[in-house]
Amino acid sequence: MVSSEEQQEASPVAIVGTREYIFSENIGILGDVAAGKEQTFGTLFARTLARIGGKLHYGHPDFLNTIFMTTRGGVSKAQKGLHLNEDIYAGMNAVLRGGRIKHCEYMQCGKGRDLGFGSILNFNTKIGAGMGEQMLSREYYYLGTQLPLDRFLSFYYAHPGFHLNNVFIIFSLQLFLLVALNLASLVHESVVCEYNRHVPITDPRKPTGCSNLIPMIKWLERSVFSIFTVFSLSFLPLCVQELTERGIWRAFTRLSKHLMCLSPMFEVFVCKIYSQSLINDMSFGGARYIATGRGFATVRVPFHLLFSRFSSESFYFAGSALAMLLFCSLALWDIALLYFWLTMFALLVAPFLYNPNQFAWTEFFLDYKRYLQWLSSGNSSSQANSWIGHIRAMRIQGTGSKRRATMEVIEKRTSDFKKPSFVNMISSQIIPSLLHFSVVSTAYLFMNAQNEVKNSRQTNPILGIALFSLGPVVINALLLLALFVVSVLIGPIISLCIPKFPSLIAAVAHTVSIVVYVITFELLWFTQNWDFKMAILGMYICTLIQGILFKIITTTLLTREFKHDRSNKAWWSGKWIGSGMGWRTVTQPLREYFCKIIEMSMFVNDFFLGHFILFIQFPVLLIPYVDKWHSLMLFWLRPERQIRPQVLSPKKRRRRRAAMQFYFVVFLLMFTLTVMIFALPLIIRDFFGVDLHRYIPEIAIDIFQPDSIPSTKKGLAGYKLYMSSKKNGSRKL
Prior knowledge:
Elements: H1 4-10, E1 13-22, H2 28-52, E2 62-64, H3 66-70, H4 88-96, E3 100-111, H5 117-134, H6 138-146, H7 149-158, H8 160-188, H9 214-233, H10 236-246, H11 248-260, H12 263-284, H13 303-331, H14 337-353, H15 361-376, H16 387-399, H17 409-412, H18 422-447, H19 461-497, H20 501-527, H21 532-556, H22 566-573, H23 584-621, H24 626-635, H25 650-687, H26 715-732
Parallel strand pairs: 1-3
Antiparallel strand pairs: 1-2
Transmembrane segments: 315-332, 338-354, 422-446, 466-491, 503-525, 537-559, 607-626, 662-684
Pfam families: Glucan_synthase (PF02364)
InterPro entries: Glyco_trans_48_dom (IPR003440)
């Protein structure tokens, strides 16, 4: 490596970068956000990096010194996967071989960016996964070990540091929720001390035996405020760019439109996609080029495609975080938690918020129809998009794919996956889950410890959690064995008369699994004396235990995955002999049995998570003209210039209307049943006055919490009551 002084004196210019103008900035909020990012990075950030010697080549409109580049490493890097961040290595090779990269302001290149939500997120996924490959390259090692400190810090923040920052943001959110969860359990079960920051800490605490927890709650509020402040600073580069080039009014109007169109929710989701893409590549590998599509940004994407695309990257994380956040809000409500509610809702609803015509009445319920079909398809015949295909695509990252190829169409759509190493799976999947479980279980056990309660009956919460977490898995395993015998004995014969018999068997298994999990939740709620927050926390721990169990099974017991789906169809139909898997027909049923045990629980998870996302969107449908307001937000179109709906024949319109009406009724029925899961036990207890504790068997009494009167001294409610009584007493004096 050459020093900066020598580089300025003798190093030839290898690359000259130019300014960029993104002309797609006026086509809706997503186009403007993408243009703003490209504009600040390609112009403002590039000119700064060029000044301090940290600019590289990023595929932007740059002029390359052909003689220098082709004789010193080339303009890209040979790699197994084509078109994956190969252009970034041109700048690295130029810098490593003594070349200079400059930026000029007197030339400008026009450029268009992605306009649709899916194409933008595909691009971000590709960049995030490519960064994982770059961090393993020798060029990063050379630059990281030989650059001077000033250029190294510039290189770090502009390249790997940006993506690692996204990882740390999501990691800090999870850590913060874990701390808040334990703090909520501690405050809820403790007597909180009177707090006055002007009183010395050595003074005796009041009331006697209390815990000084108010400073921790104040810390929680300050931390959220600091996070919000740092997040607000992310809008600063675009503001500076607009302010210096177009003036105060243009900067104010552009940022105002971003805020009014809820672009912060989009930025939160983009941060999660960047983070998860990098983590997945470092854990499993398999980074590859993703065609962003760049289709029409006005096309509506069905719900099930959005769910399958972003569930593993965002929805599962947001669902688990919402469970922790709900417990924290019920046990320790503070206005600071509102920030996390908004963040988690952004991770859940951002793909649908930026989906054109998402809140069109007819399309919404036709989407629900496609979602139910997506959940149940793929068991009788191969389907391009199905829930089982989505699960297999997630599982194949951890198991790898078999190298033996056939000519099936579904196999051609599946990429080759190398099986991750055992150490990688343990360190990236199992150990973090165990640490997460240990922190959450500490809060749960403390909540069940009956703190400050005298002469109470001893309970065994560990036994209860073990029963409620492993019980549904055992029941599903026994059910699958019974259905396997049925499908093998009568499946091949009945399938001749009823081609959809495998789908029927799968529907029975999945329905029973849903009922089993609902009953498990009700029993867990019952053991906690109908304390809803404890039921939420207990069910969350059950899902953590099951997740750890399933990851251990995937890591230790599952062999490589077939690219085709013959084993899944053979399981439900019983046609193992004619499945075309050769001698693997002997061993494949046992492997598929373990897969089906995992899939039964994952189906329940996706069923309730998908319905929850649909339920929280339903109130928006009731707003008058919401579809027009939504299009105005996305594309900045006036009401008279709205996108016209497609022209359909009268027959097709009648069919769509009939399907919409039917699935509207189904949707309301599912919503009613979901509400009854939470309301029915309370109605039986409070309205009908039925004491269910009389029916508890003696053998199960240890897992039930004693029916004690809640203490008025514990928690924030007890603290506020104590402070108000003290204030009233001082007034009387």
